[in-house]
């Protein structure tokens, strides 16, 4: 907690220093006193603007990809009575596309394929960015 308080104190001190420098740079009419003061202020503003995103920083971050076949709702009583060989009816029709989720967000739909004795998925539809944003709300 002391470390956070120290960071807050330093942030406040820096903010006060910048505000004081800005007050000294302006004349009473709001104009800059000299060209150097203008360049200092514009340089600080430039430093605050966000840089273009650097995708290299995130390319190695692992994400969880999940394929959703379907789902159903059932009371706990029925869940506890399930046994080996029981059949649970899902809310999808046979042949419907599976949902492809990345970290829980729908990004595509596809169909199951077999590749060298392993299951895979062939993407048949990629969700538009607008749909992805809608699913987050």
Automatic annotation (TrEMBL):
Keywords: Bacterial flagellum, Cell membrane, Cell projection, Chemotaxis, Cilium, Flagellar rotation, Flagellum, Membrane. It comes from the Bacteria. It is found in: Cell membrane; Bacterial flagellum basal body. InterPro entries: FliN, FliN-like_C, FliN/MopA/SpaO, FliN_T3SS_HrcQb, SpoA-like_sf. Residues 57-127 form the Flagellar motor switch protein FliN-like C-terminal domain. It is a peripheral membrane protein. Belongs to the FliN/MopA/SpaO family. FliN is one of three proteins (FliG, FliN, FliM) that form the rotor-mounted switch complex (C ring), located at the base of the basal body. This complex interacts with the CheY and CheZ chemotaxis proteins, in addition to contacting components of the motor that determine the direction of flagellar rotation. This is Flagellar motor switch protein FliN. It comes from Zhongshania guokunii. The gene is fliN.
């Amino acid at each position: 907690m002391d470390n956070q308080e120290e960071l807050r104190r330093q942030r406040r001190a820096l903010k006060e220093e910048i505000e004081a420098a800005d007050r000294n740079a302006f004349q009473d009419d709001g104009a800059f006193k000299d060209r150097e003061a203008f360049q200092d202020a514009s340089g600080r503003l430039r430093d605050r603007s966000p840089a273009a995103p650097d995708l290299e920083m995130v390319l190695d971050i692992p994400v969880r990809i999940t394929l959703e076949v379907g789902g159903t709702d059932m009371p706990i009583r029925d869940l506890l009575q399930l046994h080996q060989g029981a059949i649970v009816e899902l809310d999808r029709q046979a042949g419907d596309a599976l949902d492809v989720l990345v970290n829980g967000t729908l990004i595509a739909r596809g169909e199951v394929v077999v590749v060298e004795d392993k299951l895979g998925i062939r993407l048949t539809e990629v969700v538009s960015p607008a749909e992805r944003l809608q699913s987050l709300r």
